[in-house]
Model the fold of this input.
Amino acid sequence: MNVAVIGTGYVGLVTGACFSEFGVQVVCVDKDADKIAALRRGQMPIYEPGLEDLVGRNVREGRLSFSSDTAEAVQNALVVFIAVGTPAAVDGSTDLTFIEAVAREIGRCFDGYKVVVTKSTVPVGTGKKVRRWIQEELDIKGSSARFSVASNPEFLREGAAIGDFMRPDRVVIGTDEGDEQALAIMKDLYRPLFLNETPFVIANVATAELSKYAANAFLATKISFINEMSILCERVGGDVQGVARAMGLDKRIGSKFLHAGPGYGGSCFPKDTLSAAHFARELGVDFEIVEATIRANKRQRDHVTQKIRAALGGSVAGKTISFLGLSFKPETDDVRDSPAIEIARNLVEDGATIRAFDPQAMAEAGEVIPQLVLCKDAYEACEGGDALVIATEWNQFRMLDLPRVKEKLAEALMIDLRNIYRADALTAAGFEYVSVGR
Done:
């Protein structure tokens, strides 16, 4: 089976590489000729553990290639995945400009049967729009070519995307009711996972589209809930980690996404919660839980920023802050809507000097906040700091040489926004220690 994946961002590149690992012939397409040239040289546009090796192996074995020629890729493919960006608009809605452009280009490119699959996260009803845009282009050129539209949302966690694709919790496939041909082709494409007894959810297109928003909104709500509990814990002398453990041992709740911190971020949760709330409002539905989740997340970022100010005497003006972690989570270089970035920016605007280190996101963060003093490692970042802030829980920050850190800091103050240290251990090492919800 030949597959074309249009878009070589995070979702498109991982999807294409993983399908090629199944033995499928895959062409990943992008209009950015420089990006395609870099991929052909083996240079990854993103950091994702294992991706460079996966791409390199499948390119060498002839199953994966890269092209900027959309027409040729579409013409040679039976299944065409749309994996382009769907950025948030100012009002919180999802901008489908790139989806429409690709759908129309697909319509101009083929004369034989295709299954066109939306892999990008899109609002409910996008599948119908994709069908209309393709059909309009076919009508213009007088073509009677048949095609199907399907939805196959991704549930990839940055930092663990390859494992999530190869050993998923579930695969969701949405097709038009009665479209047995498209469903059979999609099942065949995912046949290696059927053999592993992966759960499959077969639904109509609208259900599949909504399933991604439902999952992300629920997980974001869990994060916001435990963050609100952390504020209560601080007021009454409780320990949010104890509360989270007590909750998580209830099998109806589970322990994942119950870690208090500076709030959720990244390219999915912020955008998807805003989008879900927006299209619900357009439908006349009050999506009150998601609306509250969005507000709570913003409030949590403000809350932890204020904790930093308070720990430094009420103002950070003229202070030097050692800042560890800039990506929105570990094992990625993604700084999109990163809580760490927003907090660092607020501190810079308040007059602080930020000496920062992140294992992967330095270049990206430097472009977003040029005032950052970027350091070669955690210990260089600590030099002369009036406080050390841990903003992203990279594993290498969990076992810092505390005497060395204390020696380099001007003041032995650690503000742990991810609760990766024990208060008694830091106190014993001579630090003043501030954490979240404890």
